[in-house]
Protein: Rubrerythrin-like domain-containing protein
Organism: Actinomycetospora chibensis
Amino acid sequence: MTDVPADDQGGDPACWMHRVCGECGRLADEDPPTRCPSCGAQLEVD
């Protein structure tokens, strides 16, 4: 394994819970604040 700076490692975050709609449970396509693409509920920043 090569030494790669943390900024260059990329990848997905460890947790997507902030994107889960509380109304229908669907995963939003972008980080809050946004609307759920399925039911239209507003997703807020915690």
